[in-house]
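queue> pop job 88
queue> type: inverse folding (structure -> sequence)
queue> payload:
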């Protein structure tokens, strides 16, 4: 069984090695989240230290799923800080460790981060994923609509340029 917890900067720092391992696992498995495999521990640590700074300095939100008190998944929410965007936020970096998949963790994290967005008064969520990725099924079944596709948006591990699908969800 797993639990979903909101992490602050200090808590991420305390579990930095677990977050590094999560990021390395999903990237090395082919996740298109801004990195290419093989992902070094140093590069993963650099990323998470940046997240820690964001959590300290901005209203960024990080949720993680814990299984047997170990970080097995995470998701982030970046509320737009522009005056004309105070109604929206971007969902980022939904990651589930390969050993923790097929348990409903991704959907639970998505629902939990949506609730965080609602509590912040955000009415519009946006996110993107690689075209053809299995995550598209999750987002579509959760009510996200396709805004469009940008072809050749990101490079994959094999060197191929893949399109990215941009999604949005409006709360009533």
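queue> result:
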């Amino acid at each position: 069984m797993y639990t979903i917890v909101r992490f602050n900067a200090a808590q991420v720092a305390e579990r930095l090695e677990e977050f590094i391992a999560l990021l390395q696992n999903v990237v090395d498995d082919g996740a298109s989240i801004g990195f290419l495999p093989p992902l070094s521990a140093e590069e993963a640590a650099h990323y998470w230290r940046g997240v820690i700074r964001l959590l300290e300095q901005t209203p960024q939100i990080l949720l993680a799923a814990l299984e047997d008190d170990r970080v097995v998944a995470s998701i982030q929410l970046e509320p737009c800080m522009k005056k004309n965007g105070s109604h929206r936020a971007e969902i980022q970096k939904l990651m589930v460790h390969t050993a923790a998949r097929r348990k409903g963790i991704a959907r639970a994290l998505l629902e939990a981060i949506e609730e965080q967005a609602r509590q912040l008064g955000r009415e519009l969520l946006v996110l993107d994923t690689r075209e053809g990725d299995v995550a598209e099924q999750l987002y579509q079944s959760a009510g996200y609509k396709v805004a469009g596709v940008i072809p050749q948006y990101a490079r994959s591990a094999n060197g191929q340029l893949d399109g990215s699908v941009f999604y949005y969800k409006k709360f009533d």
